[in-house]
Specification:
The chain contains twelve helices and twelve strands. The chain is α/β, with parallel strands linked by helices.
Length: 382
């Protein structure tokens, strides 16, 4: 089987898996305990936080450890909304956000907040002008994803952050960086980003661990109350093995960022050209999208049947975001981009990693053409 679903999750790096196994066996002390095992775990936690901060070029004190990007996104949005209610109750996001942002905003709407969902263009992005124009006197927070997890479209978050800070310096700016980290360069300090969410399993780390960068000086209402962990910002005993594993994965992804994305762009170009040459398929990803995500529709065909035909030929792909893959309704993302219901109901996402080769792409295109032909034959018999 050739795994081509890296946007859903990535296989753990062997070095990361070895590190986690070592830490879970040897360093099981609670970092809040005062004895030597607790102190050893506390030192590992400190070092891991420093490694994460170094990879992001921020301060260790600006890193909050979470259970993953869904918690990080909720902590940023709800934490800011609750902390700054006295400033206002208006939030800005886009129509194509990940469910952990979109549904979080919907939840706050039900509790009395006013949310603007910016429409996107046909390539699935918004502009800095759109964002700044939508700001009101009572706007507290803007939350924009860097890379869309379904289509790979790239929002100009650097430009958005800079213009937002120039025109509306009191408005906080949060970025869901899950699909961008390790694939696209981004300076948090230079981009006016106040909060930034990551999930370790998207860059070959373990599942169930992530982080939220919060710029120094910003106070958020914590989602989890209890102990004083994470400086009182996130209660709960720290998962030391996974935190250390995330730090290693983060460092490795940062080191590989100079080479891997360029290789992926080359493979993506071959794949896009091959898909464009199959008349029955419709490309949904922009030509200048993220280097690892390619999304297309198969109008008139069943996406789930297409997925299983590709699986029979040895290729594992997705129909959409893993968080929405079992839903039967049309893709909210594709509908927001102006796609038809037929196109939005028949999407396939291919997402690549460092292991893939030109031969893999060529073999996948052969399997894809075969699947399209088989579906057309089945329709003809029907």
């Amino acid at each position: 089987m050739k795994y081509m679903d890296y946007a859903a999750t990535t296989p753990p790096h062997p070095e990361v898996a070895r590190t986690i196994a070592e830490v879970i066996n040897l360093h099981y002390g609670n970092p809040s305990s005062l004895h030597i095992l607790g102190e050893q775990s506390e030192q590992l936690l400190k070092k891991a936080r420093e490694v994460c901060a170094g990879a992001l070029q921020v301060k260790p004190s600006e890193i909050i450890i979470t259970s993953g990007a869904s918690e990080s996104n909720n902590a940023a949005i709800k934490g800011a909304a609750l902390q700054f209610m006295n400033r206002g109750k208006h939030l800005i996001t886009t129509a194509i956000e990940h469910p952990s942002v979109y549904e979080c905003c919907k939840q706050l709407e039900g509790l009395g907040w006013d949310v603007t969902y910016l429409p996107v263009g046909h390539e699935g992005t918004v502009t800095a002008e759109q964002v700044c124009t939508a700001v009101q006197d009572d706007t507290v927070l803007v939350s924009i994803m860097h890379v869309n997890n379904e289509t790979g479209s790239i929002n100009p978050v650097e430009e958005i952050g800079k213009q937002l800070k120039e025109q509306h310096p009191r408005v906080l700016f949060h970025v869901d960086g899950v699909q961008g980290f390790g694939r696209l360069p981004l300076s948090l300090q230079a981009s006016g980003i106040d909060m930034y969410s990551l999930s370790a399993h998207k860059f070959r780390g373990p599942k169930g661990i992530g982080l939220l960068y919060v710029r120094e000086g910003i106070k958020l209402q914590p989602l989890l109350a209890g102990g004083s962990q994470e400086g009182g910002r996130r209660a709960g005993t720290e998962n030391i093995p996974y935190i250390v594993g995330m730090a290693k994965a983060l460092r490795l992804a940062k080191e590989e960022q100079a080479q891997v994305p360029e290789r992926l762009r080359h493979l993506r170009k071959i794949l896009i050209d091959g898909i464009a040459a199959i008349p029955k398929l419709v490309l949904n990803s922009p030509s200048d999208g993220a280097p690892h995500i390619i999304h297309f529709s198969c109008p008139g065909m069943k996406a789930e049947a297409m997925l299983h035909m590709l699986e029979e030929d040895g290729f594992l792909v997705s129909t959409r975001s893993a968080c929405s893959s079992k839903k039967t309704e049309p893709s909210r993302i594709l509908l927001a981009m102006g796609k038809s219901i037929e196109e939005a109901s028949s999407g396939i996402r291919v997402s690549l990693g460092a292991e893939h080769t030109e031969q893999d792409i060529e073999q996948f295109l052969v399997a894809l053409q075969s699947a399209v032909t088989r579906q057309e034959d089945l329709k003809g018999r029907g």
